[in-house]
Write a structure and sequence with these properties.
By secondary structure, this protein is of the alpha+beta class. The chain contains 4 helices and 5 strands; from the N terminus they run E-H-H-H-E-E-H-E-E. The protein is 28% helix and 30% strand. A 5-stranded antiparallel sheet has the order 2-3-1-4-5, with helices on one face. The mean pLDDT is 92.
């Protein structure tokens, strides 16, 4: 397999997408943060000292998708057409799951944007709740699915990478 981020001399380069066709592309990533019971209840009830934890984390995740090219070397700047972050409260596991979905009509995919969005959303939860629990654990960040582009669709299989 040819490595696309290196030239013939082994120097890092940004991939040339000039000749690629514009297609609709979507990516969805997810991840979780394990928290203490006290943090879980504060987030669930909206009583955390720093305010609306999930509301702020949602905005942070969406904003992060738009900053991916500034954070990840060699990523292209993309004109994102949709970005969303949703949360699922998992009481039994005392966890919060974040799901970030990103869309673009472009020449390159949005997997890195979705992964960045979910990561920053989870980091924001940590930041807003760290006074109550510094032992929170972020885990299982992964690409769930993607569509569009030359490589087609991908959907993570149950148990893959677990």
């Amino acid at each position: 397999m040819e490595l696309s981020h290196f030239d013939r001399e082994g120097n890092a380069i940004m991939v040339d997408v000039t000749q690629k066709e514009v297609t609709d592309r979507t990516a969805q990533a997810r991840g979780r943060i394990r928290v203490s019971k006290a943090v879980y209840e504060a987030v669930e009830k909206g009583t955390a000292a720093k305010g609306d934890v999930l509301g702020v984390a949602r905005i942070a995740g969406i904003m992060a998708t738009k900053q991916t090219a500034n954070l990840i070397p060699l990523c292209h700047v993309l004109k994102i057409t949709k970005a969303s972050v949703d949360f699922h409260l998992l009481k039994e596991e005392c966890e919060i799951e974040a799901v970030c979905t990103v869309r673009v009509a472009g020449k390159t995919g949005v997997e890195m944007e979705a992964l960045t969005g979910v990561s920053v959303a989870l980091l924001t939860i940590y930041d807003m709740c760290k006074a109550m629990d510094r032992g929170m654990e972020i885990h299982n960040i992964c690409l769930e699915k993607k569509t569009g582009g030359k490589s087609g669709s991908y959907e993570r299989q149950l148990g893959q990478g677990d």
